Amino acid sequence: MNELIPLIVIIPIIAALLLNLFAGKNKIIKAIAFIVGIGMPILTLITGYGLHYFGGHQPLASSNIAGLPSYITNSTLYNLHPAITYSYTPLAKVFIFALGIVVFLSLLTYLNSENKSSGPFLFMVFMGTASVSALILSDDLFNMYVFFEIAALIQTGIIIASSAKDNYETALKYMILSSIGGPILLLGITILLAICGSVNITDISLAVSTLVQTPISRGVLLFAFSLIFFGWLYASGLPPFHVIKSSVYSKAEPYGACILQAMSLISLIAFVIVIFRIFGDFDLFKGAMILISIIAMVLGVSMAVVQTDFRRMIAYLSVGELGFVGLGFGLGGKFAITAGLFQGVNEMLVTTLLFIGLGSVVYLTNTSDTRKLGGLIGKNTMMAIMILLGGFAMAGVPPFNGFRSKLMIVEAALTSGYPELAVIIVLISIATFIVFVKSFYTIFLKPQPNDLKFVKESIPKSMIFAVAVLLIICLILGLYPGIVTNPISQCIGGLL
Amino acid sequence: MSFYDDFLNYFKDKFSKNQITNENVSGSIAAELIIISSTLITALLLRHISIVLTAVVILVLLVLILSNLPISIKLFQEQDDSIEKMLFYAVVSLGVIVSIFYWGGL
Q1: Which positions in chain B touch A227 (Cβ < 8 Å)?
Q2: Which residues partner with A88 through β-bridges?
Q3: Closest by CA position to B27, among listed A366, A295, A370
Q4: Would the CB atoms of B93 and A233 count as touching at under 8 Å?
Q5: Which of A180, A226, A240 shows the shortest C-beta gap to B101?
Q6: How many CA atoms lie within 13 A of B40 on its CB side?
Q7: SS3 letters across A427-462
Q8: Residue A384 CA, distance from chain mean position
Q9: CB-based contact A298 B34, cutoff 8 Å
Q10: ipTM above 0.90?
Q11: What gap in Å lies between CA A367 and CA A192, rounded to an integer?
Q12: Phi-psi category of A166—alpha, beta or left, where left has phi over 0 and alpha has psi -120 to 50?
């Protein structure tokens, strides 16, 4: 047992409650948010790997109790997990640390760019952080669902907290679509509970490997698989939920959008690992993953290229990039899954860079319509160049992290005997590059329109700092990908 | 008339009320090419199941693509923020996924 593991979830929850309590006191909530924001990544680094059990004991098989009768040691009860298990693995460490960085830099931007901090908004940020951290830590499917629903409500709250036009309408639409996706996911989980008798993922995986050989059980399992797969599409914002997800990102404030996309990405990772562990041996798994990933990538990038609102453009690109993660799982094998997960980390960091970087344009002009913008390179050349480099990182231009992960996925596709997928990946990367060159030209290089008005004179230093830090991380991960791929690969080796 | 002119006229016809720039048109053409090439390359994956099926599917896709040009604008219009369309596609996807997974996996 590692006592620090639950603190990864508990500390942000306590911070959220305190921030709500001191909602009117600007200085206090700024201090709490800053301390907890910087403390979270540190906590993930000092916490040791291991398991933590809530509300019950560890499995009898792990307890080493001598003298148990054979009718217990030979039964399934012996290996059953009676407690809610939190598993802190190198994989969880990488993603929660990356989330911590994203949350901290987003908070820094928020605290510096807004004169008065909102307690309820910060409450939602920390509750969201706790929820998605629990999602990736938990080995209990129902516990995951509960935290996922909290995360979904938090996402709605973050949109409502925004000052963007039509944000209430988007939040309502997201809630309506949640009323389809959420219950369908829960129904799938319930069927698994009914047929396996446990909500622990390790127990379910073991039970499914036996039950799948019975024709009747196989039908029920396939039905549960289809429902959970659909729920996963909703959780991650893959098609057919890509439109609402991109709308959600574009209606949030830039610092809120960073947190929203990080939450969606971790939801995607957490649930795809569960689906892989339970249903990974099903024939349909690989085909379904590859197909939905291709649809996401093509729709994401083709919708991004026609956008005139750059926030929507990044939102669509972000959704499209999720397809690369799914593709890693679809291809299967240690190398491909590691590549997919590495792409997930990269996407989280690069999208944050772009949301904050291009958020500075909204900060200066109060618009994200590319038709109304132009000539902004003169306002802050350094920021413009960093945004362009961030775009290159997303498109997969060397020496950035996006290049490394996409190259790994191309290699995995070629070695798996799917050269078509390698061609599609290259094609999508070229299209992403086109999107950035086009938008960079329209926002920064095109002659400035006469009617363009500036609401602020300069960009806050916190924004420049956040973008610079993220760009440096992207460069480091591009030059030394082993920092992320080694722990992920180590963990994936245990899953296969 | 060239494909570009056809495309431009269609674009003006559909979006005449909005401000249209060269970037909009070039973006839509780029999207068109991405969609067409990706769809055809994805269809090639069917060769792992049957080469005859791949040939048939590609021919059908070619006919469908050529008879529905420009696809990107139609796709763009289908994927707006309308809740009716979002719900429609969500429910259709649920039906397709459950059907394929259930009967395809038995």
Answers
A1: 98
A2: A50
A3: A370
A4: yes
A5: A226
A6: 13
A7: HHHHHHHHHHHHHHHHHHHCCCCCCCCCCCCCCCHH
A8: 26
A9: yes
A10: no
A11: 48
A12: left
Q: Enter the tokens of residue A26.
A: 């600007």
**Where do we find the tokens 């791929």?**
A485
Residue A332 backbone zone (phi > 0: left; psi -120 to 50: alpha; other: beta): left
pLDDT of residue B37: 92
Q: Which of A123, A134, A192 is nearest to A158 (CA)?
A: A123
SS3 assignment, position A50: strand
Q: Which residues of B touch A306 (CB under 8 A)?
A: 24, 27-28, 31, 72, 76
B42 shares contact with chain A (CB less than 8 Å): yes
B76 has a chain A CB within 8 A of its CB: yes
Beta bridge partners of A140: A200
Interface contact flag, B30 A173, Cβ < 8 Å: no
Q: Does B77 touch chain A (CB under 8 A)?
A: no
Contact A302 B34 (CB under 8 A): yes
CA distance, residue A302 to nearest chain B CA (Å): 5
Q: What stretch of H or E contains A53? A: strand A50-54
Contact list in A for residue B17 (CB cut-off 8 A) is none
Q: Report, as ranges of residue numbers, the positions in chain A whose pLDDT lies below 50.
A: none
Distance CA(A342)–CA(A67), nearest Å, equals: 46
Could you tell me which chain B residue has the CA closest to the CA of A216?
A: B106
pLDDT one-digit tens code per residue, A438-468: 889 989 998 888 888 888 888 889 999 999 9
Q: Distance between CA atoms of A254 and A259, rounded to whole angstroms?
A: 9
Q: Are A314 and A354 in contact (CB under 8 A)?
A: yes
| pLDDT given at position B28 | 82
pLDDT value of position A39: 93
- Summarize pLDDT for A204-243 with one digit per residue, the tens: 988 888 888 888 888 899 999 999 999 999 999 898 999 9
Angle, in degrees to the nearest 10, between helices A283-305 and A310-331? 160
Q: Closest approach of chain B CAs to the CA of A170, in angstroms?
A: 8
- The pLDDT-based confidence of B3 (bands split at 50, 70, 90) is low
Which residue of A222, A240, A297 is in closest CB contact with B89? Answer: A240
